[in-house]
Design goal:
2 domains, globular, homodimer, Hypothetical Protein Tm841, Chain: A,domain 3, six-stranded mixed β-sheet
């Protein structure tokens, strides 16, 4: 297995410590856990937390800091964080203003967050949640709904900025839901990652194949085909987004998220195609984020997210943030 | 070839436009070229420029902006920028305060920069250069000297910050040379990248092999061996750095640079090992940068750089910067 790691069974802990060591002024690790919180917790404002499986670094904890998350709660590789760890994070950051949990829409994540929130409420902690389901490749009518993909990062930015304004819990929840309602993502994968515990690839793809719509854990997509050029790939992907949500004449943020094994060169080439296509559709781009924000270890591929802005969302998106990954 | 690109012959231009489109407030592309300069050029301070082959994105132009570079000049894939493009960059950013060229030590880069600087001097543009040769894996006594690796990014930060202070050309050059004198880097590779023009891998490595000391273009390293864990790999690499330069009791910046195909998870795991090892050696870490700063397209692997700080270098390192990649 060609990974620069140590024993797979300690990987999540090592990754957590490695991240905290890189930004000790911003991050603090809770004892006996991989939960990371802000060094300087707010005491009078709504707290925002997010958790997801390990293997998606820098998510969740690379976005902990001023203007974004108060706590990042990782699970084991590609597994939801456990209810006790989520509760640990909630209890550490809670104050009388309450806690908003952002949840990427996966069955395990939703169940575990709900359980932790029930336990928090029994301790009289005001807690609310917003479920993010931005993946247009998942059918709407499936009972579990759509998956949460890299667009979650944009909702963290919005919710964190609204919380910094001193808004109450219901307002922060409302604005996060509003941002999520105008958020769509589609992914494409070209190479699997290797699961550290067993050394197996996360999925199989032919030598020349790619798959549009594949999920962050190798969940099936909607179109498996031979590798296409960046322009054609982007066109296929954006067509799926625009069929699902009308962004015409809207102002949007574009997030081009590398899955871990796809380098900046390709993401920049993709970005030119995204800009060209959106301009032809009369969609105005306020800002573009390009990089590894929510990866699948070393998986090849990327996702494109669009988030609609209104003047208030734009101000929140532009607001200051000081996290390991996003700084404004 | 599993790359999300269009025609290989237009790749450098597409990548340049994709980067500029992502940060139109910071970057401006010069007509008929892939040279990128700051949107708001300084008119009374020393300008700092850097150029290198394409394929190393976000270098060179991801570091253009306040507090770092005034111009980024890419060549073709893995090829030095041509003298006419370097001259174009120099002429665009020059003012009476002069221009400092940072050059990674490769024969082609040094020759082409020297030619461009000669031409600039004939036009009465004050121009100086600093050659950065941070790779401890290259033998000191080879006639061409050591290669320049990702440590160049740290010298950009130092030189750019000194230039923002309003120092004269000789002072900016002196401080960049001083920073470079305490800078060492060592790389390791686990997977080759594919050269777009011919679809060939940049080098061959066995299924289970890695190579310590390999260069950014697949130049031979010093130790080819079976994949080791992160701890052992880091120990081997740091031993080579510390044999070459004594950092004991020094304060340093650590840069862990992904080569493009190695995800944040592994870089964080590596970082914990780096911190543990340096602490044992009585070396104080002021700050740690982790990410894709100077890649080799999708090559697997990473490099570790250490740069010694004194109080002035520390202030320059910490000073504000507003570029697509580095923000303070």
């Amino acid at each position: 297995m060609k990974k620069f790691i140590n024993e797979p069974e300690n990987l999540e802990a090592e990754v957590t410590r490695g991240l905290v060591l890189s930004q000790p002024g911003i991050l603090r690790q809770l004892p006996d856990s991989n939960v990371i919180v802000r060094q300087k917790l707010k005491t009078d404002r709504v707290s925002v937390v997010f958790g997801c499986g390990s293997g998606h670094e820098p998510a969740p904890s690379g976005f902990v800091g001023y203007g974004m998350l108060d706590a990042g709660i990782p699970g084991k590789i590609f597994s939801s964080p456990t209810p006790d760890m989520i509760l640990k994070g909630i209890k550490e950051v809670q104050n009388q203003a309450g806690v908003l949990c952002l949840i990427a829409n996966y069955t395990g994540d939703v169940l575990n967050f709900r359980m932790a929130m029930d336990l928090a409420q029994m301790e009289n902690i005001p807690v609310e949640s917003v479920i993010i389901a931005d993946d247009v490749a998942t059918l709407k009518n499936k009972s579990v709904g759509r998956r949460g993909l890299a667009g979650v990062v944009l909702v963290m930015k919005i919710a964190g900025a609204e919380a910094e304004l001193g808004s109450d819990l219901y307002r922060v929840k409302e604005i996060a839901e509003w941002a999520a309602s105008g958020l769509r993502t589609i992914g494409v994968a070209s190479r699997p990652c290797v699961i550290p515990a067993d050394g197996d690839p996360s999925f199989e793809l032919g030598e020349q194949e790619m798959e549009i719509g594949m999920g962050l854990h190798g969940e099936p997509g909607v179109l498996r085909c031979n590798m296409m050029g960046a322009r054609e790939t982007v066109q296929q992907m954006l067509e799926m987004i625009l069929l699902d949500c009308n962004y015409e004449k809207s102002e949007v943020v574009v997030l081009i998220n590398g899955l871990g094994g796809t380098p900046p060169m390709e993401l920049y080439a993709v970005n030119e195609c995204v800009h060209q296509y959106l301009q032809e559709q009369d969609i105005v781009i306020h800002d573009t984020m390009i990089g590894n924000y929510m990866t699948s270890m070393e998986m090849g591929g990327f996702s494109i997210s669009l988030m609609r802005l209104d003047p208030h969302l734009k101000a929140l998106y532009d607001a200051a943030a000081v996290t390991p990954i996003i700084r404004r």
